[in-house]
# Entry
Amino acid sequence: MSLSRRLLLGAGAVTALGAGALGLGWWQVDGPGAAQPASPTRNLPRPLGEMDVTLTDHRGRRVTISDWVGRPSLVFFGFTWCPDVCPTTLSDISLWLEELGPDADRLNVALISVDPERDTPEVLADYLGYFDPRIVGVTGEPGEVARILGDFRAKAERIEDVNGDYTMNHTAGVFLFRADGSFGSIIDFHEDRRFAVPKIRRAMKKEQP
Amino acid sequence: MKLPVIAVFAFGLSAGLAQAEPVRQGNLEIDAAWARASIGTSRPGAAYFTVRNFGDEGDRLIGLSSPVSTMTMLHETTLSEGISRMAHVEAAEIPASGELTLEPGGMHVMLMELATPLREGATFPLTLAFEAAGEVTVEVHVFGPGATGPAE
# Structure
């Protein structure tokens, strides 16, 4: 797909989402997203159904993001060399899933690696073995990972270390999508954790906004 | 000699499961030092603790070292526009009658180039250097890779 076509599609998606969100009335602080060339982090993610990116999960299976439509989804970006934010987010999510109980079985829950160079499917499988088994690890070709980051209006940046190692700066919130693939909301990293489970339940209810 | 050894071991084990006693150094008290278990040694680990200052003057945490890591540094996770970043912090203040808390998503000890895996249930020493109170070594308790902190 050419860049201009992707941009056009993206702008269309954001307009459609913006119109829907206006009705809900909760996002006024972010302004009428699509009309402005706002910074990518202030734009809304595209609907999952439009994300025709194919990656690989931690069991080595091909996964196309648009296939997540049909179930509410909880998606976040991270990497397994991340010592602080990512294990914290994974623990939080594991606790939320526990609190949701059997309802959580109806969710797609995915960690998309922003560090595909080190996070192979095997590495992800090893790492995720310590968290809730419903969390799926996703990695892929660096170009495809960059595309999915763009679709989510998320960011990742490689930072070289003093000792020849590197770390990643990355978008830390947890993205919630409704079962129809439309964007629901974000659970920010520093948000009061008590609001997380109600937010997930809201995204699970609004399957037909 | 056999019995006291067993007694000490049993005590150590139960303390490990619950929580370590706070360590006092000058006007400071270091409490609840913990880390997540590492998966192997290739990834950096993170450790957390709280320092309370009972004195009338502030102090500063100026250095960290541990035999489990060849590079132990104070780091801080910051978030701006939803993006998390980690930055090296030279020193951290412990205000008079105040405290410094290292916790997930905030300030943490970065344990780089691990010499040995951090195993769940084990402890390891961490030496903290304070500008006024001097150096003190605390035992860091290792919880699971998905732990959120020491149990209450």
In short: Chain B has a mean pLDDT of 88.
